[in-house]
Amino acid sequence: MTSAALAVAAREDAATEAVYDAIVIGAGISGIYQLYRLRQLGMKVRVFEAGTGVGGTWYWCRYPGARFDSESWSYGYSFSEELLKEWDWKEHFSPQPDNLEYLNLVADKFDLRRDMQFSSRVTAAHWNDAANEWTVTLESGETASARFLFTAIGILSAYTLPRITGIERFRGPSYHTARWPHTSVDFTGKRVGIIGTGASAIQAIPEIAKQARQLTVFQRRPNWAAPLHNAKISRGEMEEIRGRYPEIYARCAQTPGWFIHQPDPRKTLEVSPEEREAFWEKLYAEPGFGIWMGNFSDIVVDEKANAAISDFIARKIRSRVKDPKVAEKLIPKDHGFATRRVPLETGYFEAYNRDNVLLVDVNETPIEEITPSGLRTSEKEFEFDMLIYATGFDGVTGAFDRIDFRGPGGVRLRDVWADGPRTYLGQLVEGFPNLLMVLGPHTARGNIPRAVEHSVEWQTGLLRFMREHDYTRVETRPEYVAEWTQIVIKAAQRLLSWKVDSWQTGVNRNVDGRSVRRVLGYNGNGVHYRRKTAEVADGGYQELVFR
Ligand SMILES: Cc1cc2nc3c(=O)[nH]c(=O)nc-3n(C[C@H](O)[C@H](O)[C@H](O)COP(=O)(O)OP(=O)(O)OC[C@H]3O[C@@H](n4cnc5c(N)ncnc54)[C@H](O)[C@@H]3O)c2cc1C
């Protein structure tokens, strides 16, 4: 056969449609576990993943400094005793290479790869009412059908670039933190420019600063950040942690955010200033999210309480940054502490004390364009060998918007969700039969793998129920979708975070049409969410319609 004929044959092969019981989109933490459970139900499953391997976030985000801010031993899967015995976390907040190794181990251990297809971006998913199934189309043109479609496409997977003229003109290498090369990037002797100061930049900046000749940070909006206090885990300590796994997971199930941190029920201003200060000093010196999740619970709802903790963190920043002018630039003035997801850092503020690090506030001197040799602000021209975009994600709905989902009658999900998602429990989508979301909008999130395990188990429970009753189609009921949507909106709007633009409130100035706040997650108590979902399952899913 000639190569042209071979290519035609390959295209025809790709065009023949494969049929599965279930299709899962995405092979991160969510997709891996969803496949594992569906296979246990005896289903024929196909996972389509855009990347060349498993891992999701931990496959894509390989920038220097990338690591958990969940305690590693509270982040891993809990479903397999064997896996818990086999895997040793090496650090309390594990770095990206280890996290990727862990997820590859899970894929291999449970022989999951044979049902996964990599380099396979799903571009469309259309419901066929007559056949009662979903047909997905890949970028390659290949199609596949299944009765059930699971989205495991990530809340932070659709990355965004800034809207700056000339991005394509820069001659040196440029990287987005969420599309980092698979080989290491050497900054030695380089002049590096980094745009953005969100969570990824806060992890990357101290690491890059150690190597680069000059690092210039372009900041539009500072973020509150607090120390991670990472440490290695010795063998003995790992054994001790292993012995506590049941207790750790039980604790996570009992906290609002599914982390190990339990909020303090006292009201901030009812505690004496001395006691308050001592409590905050203790939290600030401790590892992890205690300063956020283990703080007085009213810091996220009460303006005065929030102002007090913000003042405490601001004082910490001033004490860590030598130049008072730089310190002031690093202190957020437009939102309070914990009203956006709090990045945890290791030497972030001290990085600005180095001679080779410069902070540029783009509110004072906006970036006008990227040039072939660097960039130009309203003040001056900067020359760089390398540019880094740490400009984050089109959060939560971004990955959904990038797939042409069509329900019965060709209705587009994007249109239905134009003013905000409408779901039942964040698990099923109104008007879209047999579409189940792992970590979709309006579900509880917090410590993500805990949410993922809960969601996957609830969904596989639903499928087991359908099989027992010979049902092939499940849909939401409008009154329960309306009720859940109201619960979610109310829970979000009582928080101070609702008054702040962030990826969590759906605002991203780099994306068209994303300038109005939307409620994207269930911000109520994770314990209540568990109870609610369990009640629905125990009651025989009467809130859903089956056929
Ligand atoms: C830098 C960083 C650090 C984080 N740290 C923490 C932490 O410490 N604790 C915590 O709880 N959470 C953390 N998160 C959130 C993190 O995203 C989750 O912990 C978790 O990895 C989500 O897993 P997932 O499988 O749901 O999504 P992802 O890991 O995002 O995986 C989704 C997968 O779907 C694929 N996909 C998307 N669209 C398509 C498509 N159309 N076709 C085919 N494939 C597609 C993507 O390629 C990706 O591989 C962090 C996120 C980032 C970005």
Share in helix: 25-40%
Category by helix and strand content = alpha/beta
Shape: globular
The number of E-state strands comes to 22
* Approximate strand percentage: 15-25%
Radius of gyration, CA atoms, in whole angstroms: 24 Å
Low-confidence stretches: 1-15
Bound ligand species: flavin-adenine dinucleotide
User: Mean pLDDT, rounded to whole units?
Assistant: 95
CA(first)-CA(last) distance: 49 Å
Largest sheet: 8 strands, mixed
Count of DSSP-assigned helices? 19
Protein model, in words:
- There is one protein chain.
- By secondary structure, this protein is of the alpha/beta class.
- The chain contains 19 helices and 22 strands.
- Strands 1, 2, 3, 4, 5, 6, 17 and 20 form an eight-stranded mixed beta sheet that branches. Strands 7-16-8-9-12 form a five-stranded parallel beta sheet, with helices on one face. Strands 13-14-15 form a three-stranded antiparallel beta sheet, with no helix packed on it.
- Helix 2 runs parallel beside helix 17 and helix 17 runs parallel beside helix 19.
- The termini are far apart.
- Residues 1-15 have low confidence and may be disordered.
- Flavin-adenine dinucleotide (FAD) is lined by residues 25-31, 48-51, 56-57, 59, 61, 66, 68-70, 75, 121-122, 152-154, 156-157, 200, 399, 402-403, 439, 447-448.
- Flavin-adenine dinucleotide is lined by residues 25-31, 48-51, 56-57, 59, 61, 66, 68-70, 75, 121-122, 152-154, 156-157, 200, 399, 402-403, 439, 447-448.
